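1st attempt posting a full record on here, be nice pls
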Amino acid sequence: MFPLFRKKTDLTTKPLRRLLALGAPLFAASLYNLAAIAHPGPLDENGGHYNGGSYHCHLGLCEQPDTFTRGSRDSFFFDPDSRSKFYNEADWPFDEDFDGDCQVTRTEILVATSRAPVRYTNPRNCEVRTGEWLDEYTGKVFSVATQIDLDHIVPLRYAHNVGGDRWPMNKKVAFANDPMNLLLAERSEIRKKGDKGPSRYLPREEYHCDYARQWEAIAEKYDLRLASRDRNRITSILKGCSQN
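the predicted structure (as tokens):
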């Protein structure tokens, strides 16, 4: 999808390969244009913001992010959640009309993954009304688009907390809009999952293996250094999974 990042691990499920094949061309060119724009947006909870890989304070009590060594991320003193106040949604834009066809990311994914012909809310086909979608997290099937929403398999705030905070803007945008990391799920289940990793949230048991593989593949693709508790949970799940 994005030439800047070489995919290291092939996905192991047909639905994911189909989603990537259908969704890959949707965002590439315009994402690079967007990433070239300096972040002029709102401040984070701490009172500052990232500009590229550096952090700038704007309020008097603003703190600088810690400077932990990536290689010692598993040390006793490393707490990924301590970086959460430096997270800023403006650094990770998604669900926008990147290619100018009036369809936002969610609409593109709804069209690409529907198991039945989709119907739209208007003649321009900007917004999907109905179709048929399987929520892999719960196993439920939905036919009304407003009942489901986009979820990041590896949450954006989670990625920020384990090293993504210092990524350049174009890598954050690529991560936030990569179909490999996007999945449609019931809105209430997305709220339940929140920003949790696999050690604190897992979908239905039948989807455990694919879910763990997805986390592993996404982390490898973007060189994300997952928290120890989540890496251990993924390893434990995969030990009991078939290789087929």
